[in-house]
Amino acid sequence: MKTYDFTLESHLWTKDYIECPYELLKWLKELADIEYFQEQLRNYCCYTLSHKMYDKISASEVIYDATVLQSIFRAGYRIYLKPKKFYKKGLTISEISDEELKRIKYLNKDECKNPYIVFENVFNRFTIEQVNKSFFDLILAAMANSKYQKDYCCNVSMLNFHKMLDAFKLIQQRDTTSYR
Asked: How far is it, in rounded angstroms, from Cα 86 to Cα 71?
């Protein structure tokens, strides 16, 4: 298996303005599967309910994953801002089988057919700043080492984060454009 050296200095992960969210998602496939990030979100939620701090040994991994996840959410916002480009890329389908629907954990049938609906639902209700703040508050609560610091305010539900990740997975599968 080929290994890649990805750093926090990468222009794709740290830019506030992501020019091509589809390129970022294509590159993400080489870094980690979307399932990995969904598992990390589940872990963060579990640690907010626990009296333990998220494993201190993996704090740097949490910071790295949080940076990547925030970039992914910003990519979702860029997709939301340019619906014509999304539809022009042909990332929707007219039919989905029940078997395919079962593999996508958090999306309903309409969202599976058209992942843009997910971004529209999230970003019509919340600003990108609210999404980032809710996610950052989750990370802080997961890393807190006392039960009093575990309380956090989360405007954006974890379901919305998981739905966005599932939508990204579908976009990755359907996007056949080459970016290099």
From this structure: 18
User: Do residues 104 and 170 make contact, with C-beta atoms less than 8 angstroms apart?
Assistant: yes
Instruction: Locate 64 and state its tokens.
Output: 């790295």
Burial class (CB in 10 A: 0-12, 13-18, 19+), 152: middle
How many residues are recorded in the chain? Answer: 180
pTM comes to 0.83
Quick: pLDDT tens for 105-163: 899 999 999 999 999 999 999 999 999 888 988 888 777 776 655 566 678 888 999 99
DSSP state letter for 53: P
123 contacts 77 by C-beta, under 8 angstroms: yes
